[in-house]
Amino acid sequence: MTEFVIDPPKPVVLPVAGTDKVFPVRRVYCIGRNYAAHAVEMGHDPDREPPFFFQKNPDNLDPSSEFPYPAKTEDVHHEVELAVALKAGGTNIGIDKALDHVFGYAICLDMTRRDLQGEAKKLGRPWEIGKAFERSAPIGPLHTVDAVGHPADGRIEVKVGSEVKQEGDLNQMIWKVPEMISYLSEYFELAPGDVIMSGTPAGVGPVKKGDTMVATIEGLGELTVRVV
Ligand code: MN
């Protein structure tokens, strides 16, 4: 048996709703500007330009209910998103076959150090410093396709305190889930354990310590996360 020279990293796992089982995470892909109204609020044309992706680290996913306010920022924003977890992968997956690769869905938050992301954008630099920091993706339990089907429409929102900050409908995605999977699989080899965060509706904004974010997606319940 191979001996590790240091302790191996702990596998990153997500709870599966209604079971005591967990889903192991391999990679995390995130799509940008996938709701027209959000593209507009970020100063972009909402036309159907090709999708683009960035990545978070698997261990940025955090199924706990607390989000520690991160270092080196004064402007952390919430982005509520539908997360798609894959049970199968491949390359050049056809749009018509894409949903066969999905294990389940979850509510997640693409927490963003907007000030650092903004500087990176201005300088033409990568986004990781704004996007891929510790615990930057609070996520709820995975709901299996058997349990919830493939949510393609339904309300998506996040409240901070009692105030609705972001709201939209899953049917407003510019690139639909099967299209995202198909497109990504042309550029990357997808595999079981991959998670895709599918973009956020309009209304992104800052949170501060002590805030409670309640994210809801119709059919998937809600995810409550306290900023600490
Ligand atoms: Mn996002």
Descriptive notes:
The structure is a single chain. Helix content is 17%, strand content 32%. It has 228 residues and is of the alpha+beta class. It has a single domain, classed as Fumarylacetoacetate hydrolase, domain 2 (Alpha-Beta Complex). The chain is globular. The chain starts with 12 loop residues before the first strand and ends with a strand. The model has no long low-confidence stretch (mean pLDDT 96). The protein binds manganese (II) ion. Manganese (II) ion binds at residues 30, 79, 81, 110, 199-200.
What is the ordering of alpha helices and beta strands?
EEEHEEEEEHEEHHEEHEEHEEEE
CATH homologous superfamily descriptor:
Fumarylacetoacetase-like, C-terminal domain
- Bound compounds: manganese (II) ion
Q: Largest sheet, if any?
A: 6 strands, mixed
Which structural class matches the secondary elements? alpha+beta
How much is the average pLDDT? 96
CATH architectural label: Alpha-Beta Complex
Strand order of the largest sheet: 4-3-15-8-9-12
CATH class: Alpha Beta
Rg, please?
Answer: 17 Å
- Under CATH, the topology can be stated as Fumarylacetoacetate hydrolase, domain 2
Q: How far is it from the N-terminal to the C-terminal residue, by CA? A: 43 Å
Domains, number: 1
Low-confidence runs of at least 5 consecutive residues: none
**Share in helix:** 10-25%
Number of helices: 6
Basic shape: globular
Secondary structure blueprint with pairings:
Elements: E1 13-15, E2 22-24, E3 28-31, H1 36-41, E4 53-56, E5 61-62, E6 66-67, E7 76-78, E8 80-86, H2 95-98, E9 102-109, E10 112-113, H3 114-122, H4 128-131, E11 137-138, E12 143-144, H5 145-148, E13 155-160, E14 163-169, H6 177-187, E15 195-197, E16 205-206, E17 212-217, E18 222-227
Parallel strand pairs: 3-15, 5-11, 6-18
Antiparallel strand pairs: 1-2, 3-4, 7-10, 7-16, 8-9, 8-15, 9-12, 13-14, 13-17, 17-18
Bound molecules: manganese (II) ion (MN).
